[in-house]
Amino acid sequence: MPTEAVNSLQITGLKQLIARLGSNDTILCLGNGPSSEDPRLADYQTAMLFRVNWIWTRRTWFDAPDMVFTGDPDPVQLPRQPIVAFPTEALGAAILQNQLREGLRPEAGFAYLDRFTPSLADLSKPLIPTNGALMIALAAALRPRRLVVAGIDLYRHPQGKYPGGADNCEGYTDQHSAEVDLNLISRALAGFEGETIILSDNLRDALSAP
Q1: Which domain of life is it from (predicted)?
Q2: What pLDDT sits at residue 56?
Q3: The CATH number of the domain where 34 resides is what?
Q4: What are the two backbone dihedrals, phi and then psi, of residue 161, each rounded to the nearest 5 degrees?
Q5: Residue numbers of the domain that contains 123
Q6: What is the pLDDT of residue 6?
Q7: Measured between alpha carbons, how far is 104 from 73 in angstroms, rounded to an integer?
Q8: How many domains is the chain built from?
């Protein structure tokens, strides 16, 4: 497929993203920690849904996202394609090229967050925010009336890394840290004027710590 045809699907700023997403009073940001399956989330079935990576496709809970933040190379086909946001162009362009060779086209659109306006974070440093932190920062920048966050458990949940199993091996990789994530999330939420509901206890406690 010609590069021009793919480039026409790139989303470079908030105005384009809003036009693609449409409007919704509530954005639900779901990471992959155990709190991503908090029963209280059933109250937000009609919210605009943002998810991280593709591990949630193994389960059947909030599995039709409007936007996915990922750096995973695995091609995923869903009944309704989400917009896909990659942290950097260097990472995302290579993934898209591989997917195009397999006949997969990013029909809903895609974004490289290091080329996005406004800038969400400095993604050129050795330590950068995780996709979960970038998801929350972008959701806050969209200024919905309500922002709901769950599944961002900072790898400290007693049930493990992910719902359904006590997998506590490996937390942040050497490219990420809790401090970097908390700094970005704190700044993003400090400038957010709508209602914020955090269903991840570890995240809420960390943000309120002195």
Answers
A1: Bacteria
A2: 93
A3: 3.90.1480.10
A4: -75, -40
A5: 3-208
A6: 75
A7: 12
A8: 1
Ranges 3-17, 30-44, 173-187: which has the least confidence: 3-17
Enumerate residues 6+ apart whose C-beta is below 8 A from 159. 34, 166
E runs forming strands in 43-169: 48-52, 67-69, 83-86, 110-112, 146-150
In this prediction, residue 2 has a pLDDT band, given cuts at 50, 70 and 90, of: very low
The region, left, alpha or beta by phi > 0 then psi within -120 to 50, assigned to residue 23 is: beta
Q: What is the CA radius of gyration of the chain?
A: 16
Strands 48-52 and 195-198: unpaired
Partners of 117 in the β-ladder: 13
Q: How would you class 57 by CB atoms within 10 Å of its CB: exposed for 0-12, middle for 13-18, buried for 19 or more?
A: middle
Helix (H) or strand (E) holding 30: strand 26-30
